[in-house]
Design brief:
Elements (H helix, E strand, L loop, with lengths): L1 E6 L22 H21 L3 E7 L11 E5 L4 H11 L2 E5 L6 H11 L9 H7 L2 H10 L7 E4 L13 E5 L9 E3 L13 E5 L4 E10 L2 E4 L3 E5 L7 E6 L3 H22 L5 E9 L9 E6 L5 H6 L6 H9 L14 E2 L7
Parallel strand pairs: 1-2, 1-4, 2-3
Antiparallel strand pairs: 5-8, 6-7, 6-8, 9-10, 9-11, 9-13, 11-12, 12-15, 13-14
Helix pairs in contact: 4-6
Amino acid sequence: MRLVIHEWCCSGGFAGHDRWHVVGNGDDVEPLAREGRVMFRGLLADAVRDGGFEVTALVDEACRIDVPAGVRVRSVAAGDEIEVLIDESRRADATLIVAPETAGILANRVTAVRAAGGEVLAPSNGFIEIASDKQATIDTLAAAGVPVPAGRPLTAGESWPRWFHLPAVRKARGSTGCDDLVVVRHGDVPPPPAVEPARLEAFVEGLAVGVSCLVGAAGILPLPAVRQRFSSGPRPRYLGGEPLVEPAVARRAERLAARAVAAVARAGGGTQAGWVGVDMILGDRADGLDDRVLEVNPRLTTSFVGFGSGGDASLVRAIVDVAMCRGAVVPDVSPAAFSLTEDASA
């Protein structure tokens, strides 16, 4: 099976015209670039380990990155990222795209490949559209009865509402990870107005958990839940994850994730195929009544790194099998603790 793997940071995104939607002048791009390298290497290693794929990696000509033996490298010149992606996807049986949702970057690439006749292992266009907007995601989940934090949208340039309950979180409506996320606690001075539309929501105390789901014709299959780790302070960064060892808590998280993915799928015209991540906060109640879903990520997430290093089963193969209804069984994988603070090989 001919498989193309594209990761925005490593495959020419930083050299493209839309990089300025993700990183501004003077911004430190290294955390995002490091995360991209770790995911890219993890994907390539996993696909090669399966033994059943002819793998092509799209690599920015200015990016120095080692790829596993047996991987064909297609060099991407500055500004040619989307054209090369389309060209290679036309000759492949399937394409995996990892890109930020910000400013439609993910959606534009998935749509371009599908319009050219390529097969993308990704959710439907409607699913991506909803999940790429944090306010639209929350509205969709709430309408389906999935528990979410209380909050409201903020227009670009709108000041912090004077009487909004603290502590609270402001996040850009269209962003990836912790980009533009700020936590305001009692006694803090609220930040200046955001230049882009944002969502303001109540800060939810509890356990930060991520659940990745394989979706496709075989259904929605949650993988084991992962406990997430973040830096402290008003602008937290995602640091990595570790296994969620309490079985009852993990099952609660996995059921909630499946509900969230199903809700977005119904509103967006189906899931289609691929990997979807769900971020949530689990409260102390065993019945789950104080659990809250924060967002849905319509793409491969960094938890792939933990799963890819924690077992022998190929997750890329699992994505393909679920997408093409070759199996409806969760692969035998367990997450290992992983960190994004060092650019280590997966």
